[in-house]
Amino acid sequence: QVQLVESGGGLVQPGGSLRLSCAASGTKFSLYNMGWHRQALGKQRELVATETSGGTTNYADSVKGRFTISRDRADNQVYLQMNSLRPEDTALYFCNGKYYRLNYWGQGTQVTVSS
């Protein structure tokens, strides 16, 4: 059974940092393009960051220079290091894995940035 399980969310003050983790299991995720998306209350889900199976990264303009996506291929983990967090980063963050027509999502982890 393919699973993506996110963790690491929480409440943080503006300017703070969080590191999200995504544990992938059930298939060979080193072949997958992996990504993080987020959905704020009342808004559409949006792409935050992606890393291809070849290691190329891509970021939404709103997080460039603040967020970093990385993965540990040996342990099937994907990370999102988030620095200089802003209230507008508040959202439910989802891990995503894509391989051709295969597309998997985790259940999400809540990030709240507030003083």
Compute the CA-based radius of gyration.
13 Å
Q: Outline the biggest β-sheet.
A: 7 strands, mixed
The tally of helices reads 0
* Total strands: 11
Low-confidence residue ranges: none
Helical proportion, percent range: under 10%
Q: Based on Cα principal axes, name the global outline.
A: globular
In terms of structural class, how would the helical and strand content be classed? mainly beta
Q: What this model shows, in words?
A:
- This protein is an all-beta fold and 115 residues long.
- The protein is 0% helix and 54% strand.
- The protein has strands spanning 3-7, 10-12, 18-25, 33-39, 46-51, 57-59, 67-72, 77-82, 91-99, 102-105, 109-113.
- The strands form 2 sheets. Strands 2, 4, 5, 6, 9, 10 and 11 form a 7-stranded mixed β-sheet that branches. The chain has a 4-stranded antiparallel β-sheet with strand order 1-3-8-7, with no helix packed on it.
- A hairpin with a 4-residue loop joins strand 7 and strand 8 (77-82).
- The protein is globular.
- The relative contact order is 0.32.
- The mean pLDDT is 96.
Keywords summarizing the entry:
single chain; 115 residues; mainly beta; seven-stranded mixed β-sheet; four-stranded antiparallel β-sheet; 54% strand; globular
SSE topology:
Elements: E1 3-7, E2 10-12, E3 18-25, E4 33-39, E5 46-51, E6 57-59, E7 67-72, E8 77-82, E9 91-99, E10 102-105, E11 109-113
Parallel strand pairs: 2-11
Antiparallel strand pairs: 1-3, 3-8, 4-5, 4-9, 5-6, 7-8, 9-10, 9-11
Report a brief summary of the structure.
With 115 residues, the protein is mostly beta strands. Helices cover 0% and strands 54% of the residues.
